Amino acid sequence: MKNLSLKLEDNIFQETESILSKVHKNRNRYINEALEFYNKLQRRRLLARQLDKESKLVAGESLSVLAEFEALEDEG
Length: 76
What we know:
Elements: H1 10-23, H2 27-75
């Protein structure tokens, strides 16, 4: 486990302390869970961005293939 020095804005710290007293979790566990959640969110956003980028790269080719299939259907 790594040690970390962290500076929080006063309002974030106060809100966190208030929540911690109600959920009965220690600060380290709470921050670890929050970072784990945020990391998952960021991974999803990065994956969505990558998917969007790659979809745009193949969009033209997909339309070309679709046109070829439509032409084959018209011939049949």
